[in-house]
Amino acid sequence: MAFFRPRVSREAEVRYHADQEVGRGFPALLGKAREAERALREAQAAGASQERLRELGVALDRALTDALRAAEAAARATYGVRAYDDRIARRKARATPAGAMWTAEVHRLRTLREQHRLTGIPRLPREVPAHVK
Fold first, then answer.
1. Domain-embedded: residue 109
2. Would you give the DSSP letter of residue 3?
3. How far apart are alpha carbons 126 and 33 in whole angstroms?
4. Which domain of life does the protein's organism represent (predicted)?
């Protein structure tokens, strides 16, 4: 009886290596997100203008999005190259300690970003149109 292991597709290998490269930048991107949050909190404590708070809030949103994308890429790379083509392999990889750690980190960052989008970016008041006055 011959045993064989089905090869993964070339596309899966390319995506795997690309995700490894993106995932390596996760610590730096997370540091940028922490710095952006610190700047926003300091501006809030100092009583900065709404325009400045909005600018810092949008910068934090961008930093969180970049960190989230890097965490998702690192998670996919941790799951392994077979997980790109096989949902069973992906599910098994999520159950490993490293896979569960990355899954939790992605969930934490996604929740933090969505919470910030809902409550952390100040809305600027708009002018009332002349025909309404």
1. yes
2. -
3. 29
4. Bacteria
56: Cβ–Cβ under 8 A, 6 or more apart, which residues? 36, 39, 40, 43, 48
DSSP code of 121?
S
Least-confidence region, from 5-9, 73-77, 103-107: 5-9
Give residue-wise pLDDT tens across range 80-102.
999 999 899 999 999 999 999 99
Residue 1, domain member (yes or no): no
Exposure letters 91-124 (e unless 16+ CB within 10 A, then b) = eebbeeeebeebbebbeebeebbeebeeebbbee
Query: What sections of the chain are H helices per DSSP?
Result: 10-24, 26-46, 50-79, 87-94, 97-119
Residue 2 to residue 79: CA distance in whole angstroms:
27
pLDDT tens, residue by residue, 40-54 = 999 999 998 999 999
Q: For residue 62, what are the domain limits?
A: 10-119
pTM: 0.85
3-state secondary structure (DSSP) of residue 75: helix
Rounded to whole angstroms, how far apart are CA atoms 37 and 41? Answer: 6
Question: How many structural domains comprise the chain?
Answer: 1
